[in-house]
Records
---
Amino acid sequence: MTTYKVAAVYTNEDYEPYATERDTAVAQLCQQHGATFHALKDQVIFAKNELLGKSGRPSKVFGSYRKAWLEALRDEQLRPYPSAELYNASNLTKLPNAPSRPTLTEMGFEEFRQFIPSAELPPEKLVRNYHLTRNTPGRVDSSTRRSVHLRFGTLSVRELMRQAQELNPKLLDELVWRDYFMMLLWHYPYTATESYEPRLRHVPYRNNEEEFRAWCEGRTGYPLVDAGMRELNETGYMPNRARIATAGFLVKHLLVDWRWGDKYFSDKLLDYDMSQNVGNWQWMAGTGVVAAPWFRVYSPQSQLKQYDPDLAYVKKWVPEYGTSAYPAPIVDHKFARERAIETFRTAYRAAVS
Ligand SMILES: Cc1cc2nc3c(=O)[nH]c(=O)nc-3n(C[C@H](O)[C@H](O)[C@H](O)COP(=O)(O)OP(=O)(O)OC[C@H]3O[C@@H](n4cnc5c(N)ncnc54)[C@H](O)[C@@H]3O)c2cc1C
């Protein structure tokens, strides 16, 4: 600002609390220097205030939000922006004495070889079958694997939405969830670190560190949970069905605060996105703006039978399953289920009275 005469600053809007604060500070700086500041919509189809309920607040029912989303959708909203054409040498002005762009190493990144799915649109066949395959973590083509690209903007959400709109409404639904959680985080930034549901802010979690470590390392003796955690540790990815199983198990079976799990996922997931992670963790814990009922405790064994009946997923990530090297269950399901319901119920009732 002091070196160049800046007329305007353009950026894409970002809803994370830190980003909101940062952009507010930059906007103020621009104002002080007579430059205009423009934060534009790019990462979502409908921005934070475009689809509010009658009360002027976000709807707390996903079905109502989805209905409004679908009704408001116009073809042009799913058209890709011509950014590749506009971003060319003749459109860019070279600043005299401009500092060179820092390299990734200079920014503190280290090289780490890891599988990254293609940034192209997923194959048509996969998208057509998505509703049939999405809950089978043992298949490599069970879901699109595009979350990391949506996270970093290396695939346009508009293009993926358009493909989903043409080929598979279930996939479109999942992408609408993404818009929804982004909007919720902007309106309720405190939910990044606090339960939305005030009656569940004082659940006496056990937070047993040894059990937490066993969960992190995939040593709980529940194979679907262990497979998910081991895949996460090794690849930085975990299929949605396994995220549900591992998150539910941590909060309900082990009674560990959902924030511990949220933090662990944030350290490990390549597609980590605060709005999606917090939204989903609070959903699983029963504490969110939208949430599964707090008394719902999934059985990890029933989930295994339902979603990995031939053990394809488990065999891939937990090769010692079925041998004496595999640990016994860290806690009995029936006992843990009753303990979780009782703990949550007591906390809930105490907060109400
Ligand atoms: C506890 C927990 C934590 C999660 N943390 C994250 C996270 O940090 N980042 C993240 O992108 N997703 C997160 N998810 C949502 C979901 O698991 C991933 O988006 C999905 O597994 C990514 O794989 P995919 O691209 O193959 O998804 P697909 O099934 O192919 O879905 C396509 C896209 O739809 C969106 N989507 C799918 N499922 C969901 C969902 N449940 N909520 C919101 N959007 C969804 C994602 O953008 C995804 O890339 C989390 C889910 C749970 C249960």
Note: The chain has a mean pLDDT of 95.
---
Amino acid sequence: MTSQPDTSQPDISQPAPTGAETPRRALPMRRPLSFVRRSNRLKPSYQRTWDAALGKELLEIPHGERDTSVAEGFRIDWAAEFGRSAPIVVEIGSGSGEAVAHAAAANPDTDFLAIEVYKPGAAQLVSRIRREQLSNVRVAVANAPEVLDQLFAPGEVAEVWIFFPDPWHKKKHNKRRLIDESFIDRVARVLPAGGVWRLATDWSGYAVQMRTLIGASARFKNPHAGERAGDASPLTEVRLHDLDAISMGKEPAPLELEQARDDDGGWAPRFPGRTQTDFETKALAVGRKIFDLTFIREP
Ligand SMILES: C[S@@+](CC[C@H](N)C(=O)[O-])C[C@H]1O[C@@H](n2cnc3c(N)ncnc32)[C@H](O)[C@@H]1O
């Protein structure tokens, strides 16, 4: 079902500028995509919903050279789009939108933008939004780094959520991971001081990468630094039994307690606003552990 990744894309490896004085800008550079291009074909019923929602719940985004890019100069006035001024939560990689739809229904005073490149997933979300008559969600089918750069002014987003980003767990694919230094700068730009970045992953290597990279950024603070360390850390448990290998049906190579012990911790408690998606349910069913992280934008 999957085709070869499109590598003819803008490189987004350069840090985006940050700070209240920083304007929006697009970065036409080269970097591997964090997603593999899959079939965009929709079932007829979803196609009908898609057509009806285009320009309404489904943002009509003019694309550049790729169908997932955002055309240079395209902007959205969010207050006009939602018909009000309310905090905006951006969920990146929404999949079929279980989490964002659930959160939008529970938080009618907050506006939500779901960003997803996979059209059939976005179509499911659009269908859900219409079925549940949620007026506070919009869907952007485009590459998330470009959406952040071009569609938001500095400090315009109250929270950024990324739950279960594609793990790209093979070493040779690690460079495709969405969360790297340049992406951290992008998120920092759109959040105001005190803004919140919530993440979750079921892949311990990616969890450590997030904890290390974002934790090292002067722009973010981990409000749970040092918490859930040692025996209380999910990382200790994963390493001790090599749960990642077991969950993939591979021969485990468990570590001795001394090497397995995660003395750093820093894991957040499960964010109560994050509903359990099918994706997480499947991960738990094969014995994977979930890592939650929260970071606060520093002034
Ligand atoms: C593993 S799925 C998780 C879906 C959902 N968050 C959940 O918990 O069920 C990751 C999603 O991120 C999307 N994605 C990956 N890179 C993206 C990007 N650069 N921009 C937008 N979506 C992206 C993928 O298409 C995929 O649907």
Note: The CA atoms of residues 21 and 288 lie 43 Å apart.
